[in-house]
Amino acid sequence: MSRSSRVIPPITAQLIRPGVVEVRIVARIYGQAGEHWLRVLSGPNHGGYGRILIDRTGAKQRRYENCYDSRDDYRGNPAINLDECPGAMFIWTGDKEADVEAICAVDNQKLGRELGNALRPYPQRTRKDLWEVVFRFL
Predict the structure, then answer these.
(1) Separation of alpha carbons 40 and 137, rounded Å
(2) Could you read off the pLDDT of 85-107 as tens digits, one per residue?
């Protein structure tokens, strides 16, 4: 197989040093969701979010808090989801709120599902068991 014909998986997660996982996302594969995450997390210090950590505990509450103000605007429109970036499964050290944007439901659910699956090998057994995530966009 030649180098140019190699298929790049849309999302990969790989341990790059103890406690730190690099997530590579081919943004164009995820349409509006990929554009949203690329725009929000690009630049120095993950766009000002600082260190981003997986914290699955409390994700439901964070999702509620991040999306509460906008949820009625899109209720009843099955083609639209509110996309949070960074997603509800993450916490971060920067002093910013999650960026919430109404986007295509299919794009949002595909990115969320595949990101969750890619990070599944990095479990959180206790509340203090946090993995740092470094995002790279291709």
Answers:
(1) 11
(2) 999 999 999 999 999 999 999 99
